[in-house]
Amino acid sequence: MTSTPLRFRPLLKQTIWGGRRLGEMLKKPIGDADDYAESWEIVDHGEDQSVVTDGELAGKSLGDLFATQRSWLMGSAWVEANPDAKTFPLLLKFLDCNRVLSVQVHPDDAYGATMQPPDLGKTEAWVILHSEPDSVIYSGLKAGVDRESLREMMVAGETDRALHSYHPEVGDCVFIPAGTVHALGGGLVVAEIQQSSNTTFRLFDWNRLDASGNSRPLHVEQSLDVSDYERGPVDPIRKPLASGTDDLVSCDKFVLRRVHQSSPTIAGDDQCHLVTVIDGSATLVSGDEVTQLSTGESVLIPAVSGEMQMESKEATCLWMTPPSGSTT
């Protein structure tokens, strides 16, 4: 089978909080629409499937490849450590937030396994690609907020009083482990790497009503059960943009790095790699084979691939891997 980087057709999602920036900034095929909120770049979650666009595997879904070619895709160490894994473990997406999103919290793997149907927990990280002057991120609970005080604020419709918040800058990275209460504010475009999961509980929707005067349901007890009351306020990881490779997040679910105007060697290590270009143009070079990537394009490099040079002297890229041998 091929060892070349896999390109996938993005899955575009429309919601009332979307806009046009996925098309304008990241060159996604949104046409004249102005309500595209998410572009799922690499995903294997139920009916949401990335499909290979070209080469000998064209038409194959990521789920098919994970089910039938797991060692080729993930590497032998990962497969040995995760014998019961049912899906590709990571989901890569872009989000365009034209208004503040609901306040949410995600459970960990143990809680997710008890749900019907079972799912993974959800640890995630954001990299800020665009921020308006009045944009806000809400991440973590203020110091001293415990289960009972959070319950009181939720019932009173005042959950925002519990939330740590700040203005994000372009280039910031925000790490959101499972259990961290959070919300993305309006005017933000972010790249997100997360576990392949859809386990979300809503604490607060800013007391908004729909056209019929109804509010969206809240998940009070589930949110209180899974929230982390020990972590406290979560501030951004803020590293100046400089030539080279910056390690942004390293946890038991993924490793996230930023590559700017440099040419690191990647792959050739028996694990899969995900690469997305967030600004400029880059190439992946393996012998005589060259893969060109422009802004907004993403690829998955199978574990079987040999070493490649990521030439990003004219670009800023995000480079992600599941930790070798770790459990999902």
TrEMBL record:
Query: Domain Phosphomannose isomerase type I catalytic, which positions?
Result: 8-114
Q: Where is the Mannose-6-phosphate isomerase cupin domain?
A: 258-313
Q: Could you confirm whether the keyword Metal-binding appears in this record?
A: yes
Q: Which InterPro entries match?
A: Carb_Metab_Reg_Kinase/Isom, Man6P_isomerase_Firm_short, MPI_cupin_dom, PMI_typeI_cat, RmlC-like_jellyroll, RmlC_Cupin_sf
Sorted keywords for this record are: Isomerase, Metal-binding, Zinc
Q: Which Pfam families match?
A: MPI_cupin_dom (PF21621), PMI_typeI_cat (PF20511)
GO MF term list:
isomerase activity
Checking Gene3D superfamilies in the record gives: Jelly Rolls
Specify the protein name: Phosphohexomutase
Give the source species: Rhodopirellula halodulae
